Amino acid sequence: IMVVDGGKAVAIDTPAGLIASIGSGQRLRFTPSGPISDELIHDVPGVTGVERRGSQIIVIGSEGILQGVSAVLTSEGILAANLSIEQDTLEDAYFALTNQDNTPEEGDAA
Question: 57 CB contacts (<8 Å, ≥6 apart)?
Answer without folding.
Answer: 28, 29, 30, 31, 32, 36, 38, 41, 50, 51
